[in-house]
Amino acid sequence: MRKRESQPGLSSSTDPALTRVARLGRPHGLDGFLGLYVEPADLALFEIGAAVEIDGRPLTVREVRRGPRGHQVAFVELPNRESADTIRNHEVFAKDRRRLAEGEYWLEDLIGLEVRPGGGVVIGVESGPAQDRLVIEQAGAVFEVPFVLELVPRVDQEAGYVEIVEIEGLIPPSSGL
Q1: Which among 22, 81, 151, 165 could bridge 38 via Cys, Cβ 3.0 to 4.6 Å?
Q2: ∠ Cα 105 111 115 (to 5°)
Q3: What is the rounded distance in angstroms from the CA atom of residue 44 to the CA atom of residue 124?
């Protein structure tokens, strides 16, 4: 499984040690619950009493519940719908990162890896609804490769490279592959 994670620095968090772990949605009910868009494995970061940060403001998880279309969260400091609405659609940050399973990666850690074969470097990661895409610069050309096992069969962070499969039409002819 390829892990989808936002990159630090693309948000309003004031602490670079924090990691984006979720996004909030609209309020649900009158008691301060908000929609919670979170990877299932990251739900553990939302235990009762857990500390998170939203727009530089520390908040304490009061409760998480399963809603009709996902999860919902309420914070101790935001006891009602009106107060919860002040953070609608904001990102949630935490100091902790969960342990990744084999084959999962923090996307920001892929930036700067060498591309093999043919050279080049990963200069960014674009997140999309179907899959993430590696943004690669190679011989003056910039292109994207879907970050799926069939096209990126190997990521070796220790050795500092990603391997991409050469498919005609996927890589611009001027890139040298």
Answers
A1: 22
A2: 95
A3: 28
- Whole domain around residue 25: which residue ranges? 19-94
Alpha-carbon span 80 to 7, nearest angstrom: 31
3-class SS string, 38-65: ECHHHHHHHCCCCEEEECCEEEEEEEEE
In the three-class reduction of DSSP (H, G, I as helix; E, B as strand; rest coil), residue 112 is classed as coil
Q: What is the pLDDT of residues 33-92, one digit of tens each?
A: 999 998 887 898 999 999 999 999 999 999 999 988 889 999 999 999 999 999 999 999
Between 104 and 129, name the one with better pLDDT.
104
Which domain CATH number covers 90? 2.40.30.60
The length of the chain in residues reads 177
As a whole number, mean pLDDT of residues 171-177 equals 56
2/105 Cα distance (integer angstroms): 6
Question: 90 and 116 share a domain?
Answer: no
pLDDT at 131: 80
Predicted TM-score of the model (pTM): 0.55
The total number of structural domains that make up the chain? 2
